[in-house]
From TrEMBL:
<dbReference type="InterPro" id="IPR050596">
    <property type="entry name" value="AspAT/PAT-like"/>
</dbReference>
<dbReference type="InterPro" id="IPR004839">
    <property type="entry name" value="Aminotransferase_I/II_large"/>
</dbReference>
<dbReference type="InterPro" id="IPR015421">
    <property type="entry name" value="PyrdxlP-dep_Trfase_major"/>
</dbReference>
<feature type="domain" description="Aminotransferase class I/classII large">
    <location>
        <begin position="13"/>
        <end position="56"/>
    </location>
</feature>
<dbReference type="InterPro" id="IPR004838">
    <property type="entry name" value="NHTrfase_class1_PyrdxlP-BS"/>
</dbReference>
<keyword id="KW-0808">Transferase</keyword>
<dbReference type="GO" id="GO:0030170">
    <property type="term" value="F:pyridoxal phosphate binding"/>
</dbReference>
<comment type="similarity">
    <text>Belongs to the class-I pyridoxal-phosphate-dependent aminotransferase family.</text>
</comment>
<dbReference type="Pfam" id="PF00155">
    <property type="entry name" value="Aminotran_1_2"/>
</dbReference>
<protein>
    <recommendedName>
        <fullName>Aminotransferase</fullName>
        <ecNumber>2.6.1.-</ecNumber>
    </recommendedName>
</protein>
<dbReference type="InterPro" id="IPR015424">
    <property type="entry name" value="PyrdxlP-dep_Trfase"/>
</dbReference>
<dbReference type="GO" id="GO:0006520">
    <property type="term" value="P:amino acid metabolic process"/>
</dbReference>
<keyword id="KW-0663">Pyridoxal phosphate</keyword>
<keyword id="KW-0032">Aminotransferase</keyword>
<dbReference type="GO" id="GO:0008483">
    <property type="term" value="F:transaminase activity"/>
</dbReference>
Amino acid sequence: MRLGEVPGVAGQTILVNGVAKTYAITGWRVGWMVGPKDAITLAANLHSHLSSNVTNIAPYSRLPVDTE
Protein backbone atom coordinates (compact mmCIF):
# COMPACT_ATOMS: atom_id res chain seq x y z
CA MET A 1 0.00 0.00 0.00
CA ARG A 2 1.26 3.47 -0.85
CA LEU A 3 1.15 6.23 1.73
CA GLY A 4 -1.14 8.33 -0.48
CA GLU A 5 -3.65 5.47 -0.57
CA VAL A 6 -4.17 5.46 3.20
CA PRO A 7 -7.54 7.14 3.88
CA GLY A 8 -7.15 10.70 5.13
CA VAL A 9 -3.37 10.82 4.64
CA ALA A 10 -3.08 12.16 1.08
CA GLY A 11 -4.13 15.68 2.09
CA GLN A 12 -1.59 15.72 4.94
CA THR A 13 1.42 14.28 3.12
CA ILE A 14 4.26 16.27 1.56
CA LEU A 15 6.92 14.54 -0.51
CA VAL A 16 10.23 16.32 -1.10
CA ASN A 17 12.84 14.69 -3.31
CA GLY A 18 15.72 15.49 -5.62
CA VAL A 19 18.30 13.99 -7.94
CA ALA A 20 21.62 15.20 -6.48
CA LYS A 21 22.25 12.39 -3.99
CA THR A 22 20.18 9.70 -5.70
CA TYR A 23 22.12 9.92 -8.97
CA ALA A 24 25.45 11.17 -7.56
CA ILE A 25 25.29 14.53 -9.33
CA THR A 26 25.83 16.66 -6.24
CA GLY A 27 26.49 19.88 -8.15
CA TRP A 28 22.94 19.94 -9.46
CA ARG A 29 20.17 21.55 -7.42
CA VAL A 30 17.19 19.82 -8.98
CA GLY A 31 14.34 18.78 -6.77
CA TRP A 32 10.60 18.71 -6.42
CA MET A 33 7.84 18.80 -3.88
CA VAL A 34 4.42 17.12 -4.09
CA GLY A 35 1.59 17.78 -1.67
CA PRO A 36 -1.54 19.78 -0.99
CA LYS A 37 -1.80 22.87 -3.21
CA ASP A 38 -1.85 25.35 -0.31
CA ALA A 39 1.32 23.84 1.18
CA ILE A 40 3.08 23.93 -2.20
CA THR A 41 2.08 27.58 -2.68
CA LEU A 42 3.43 28.54 0.74
CA ALA A 43 6.67 26.62 0.17
CA ALA A 44 7.16 28.24 -3.26
CA ASN A 45 6.65 31.67 -1.71
CA LEU A 46 9.18 30.93 1.04
CA HIS A 47 11.66 29.53 -1.49
CA SER A 48 11.44 32.67 -3.62
CA HIS A 49 12.33 34.81 -0.61
CA LEU A 50 15.19 32.54 0.44
CA SER A 51 16.82 32.14 -2.95
CA SER A 52 16.20 35.21 -5.09
CA ASN A 53 16.33 38.34 -2.96
CA VAL A 54 19.09 40.72 -2.06
CA THR A 55 21.27 39.44 0.78
CA ASN A 56 20.52 40.82 4.23
CA ILE A 57 23.77 42.77 4.46
CA ALA A 58 23.63 44.35 0.98
CA PRO A 59 21.59 47.40 2.05
CA TYR A 60 24.05 48.07 4.87
CA SER A 61 27.05 47.94 2.54
CA ARG A 62 26.21 51.37 1.21
CA LEU A 63 25.85 53.06 4.63
CA PRO A 64 29.38 54.49 4.56
CA VAL A 65 28.63 56.05 1.16
CA ASP A 66 25.32 57.55 2.31
CA THR A 67 26.77 59.04 5.48
CA GLU A 68 29.69 60.91 3.92
